[in-house]
Amino acid sequence: MSNEEISEFIQQAISGNEVMLFMKGTPEAPACGFSARTAAALNALGVEYAALDILPDPRIRQELSALSNWPTIPQLFVNGALVGGADIVTEMYETGELAEALGVDQPAEEEVPEAPAVGAPQTAPIGLENRLG
Amino acid sequence: MPTSEYLRERIETALPGASAQIEDLTGGGDHFRAEVVSESFGGLSRIERHKLVYEIFGDEVGGPIHALSIKASTPEETT
Question: Residue B71: which of A69, A85, A87 has the nearest Cβ?
C-alpha cells in the first residue's frame, strides 16, 4: 500500500465516521496509557465510535500527523474535525464539553477511569477493518 | 536525552513571559508533562494552545520526546 493510499484511507475514516479515534492498540486492549484514557472517556459516555490502531504500520501515524498537524497519538475526530489528544479529551470529559460535543448526557461519575474499563465497553466500538496492517 | 530543564527553557524562550512546570513522568527523559501558563494562550482554543506548544519542539515530539502531555492556561485562568 502506498503512502497516498494510506492517507486516503485515513481521510475516509475521518469523514466516514462521526466519532473516529486513532489510537495505539484497540479500545479492548489499548497499548498506551494515553490511548487507554481517551478510549475510557468515550466508553464512559457510551457513544459509538470507530477506532483504528496506528501501530501495525509506522506510516499510518506519519500520514495521520501530516493531515492533522498534530504530532502525538491518540487523536480524536468528531464530525471530521480534530478535537484533540488525551489531555484535551480528558479535560473536555471532566467539564462536560465532550458530552456536549457528542450530543450525549454526562454520566453521574466525575472521574475518567484511570484504567481501561474491565470487560466490554458499554457500547461496542464500530468495527473498522484495519486494512493498513 | 531531553531533560525537564531543557523543555522548560525551550517553552519559556519561545513564549515570552510564559512560565512552565515540567515533570518527567517516567524519569526516562521521554514522557513529559508540561503545565504552561502564558498570555499567548489568550483567545485560543485548546487545540490551538496545544499546537503552539507542540510547534516549539517540531519533530522532537514523537521523536526523542516520545510523549508530551500539556496543560495550557492563561494567567487569568489560574487564579
Answer: A87
Helical ranges in A31-121 per DSSP H: 33-45, 58-68, 86-95, 97-102
Verify whether the Cβ–Cβ distance B47 to A82 is below 8 Å: yes
Phi/psi at A36 (nearest 5 deg)? -60, -45
Q: Which of B50, B59, B68 sits opposite A84 (nearest CB)?
A: B50
Cell numbers linked to A21: 479515534
What pLDDT tens digit does each residue of chain B (79 aa) get?
899 999 999 999 999 999 999 999 989 999 999 999 999 999 999 999 999 999 999 999 988 998 899 999 999 998 7
In angstroms, the first-to-last Cα distance of chain B is 34
d(CA A31, CA A47): 21
Q: How far is CA A66 from CA A114, B7, B57, in A?
A: 30, 23, 16
ipTM: 0.85
Tell me the backbone φ, ψ of residue A67, rounded to 5 degrees. Answer: -75, -40
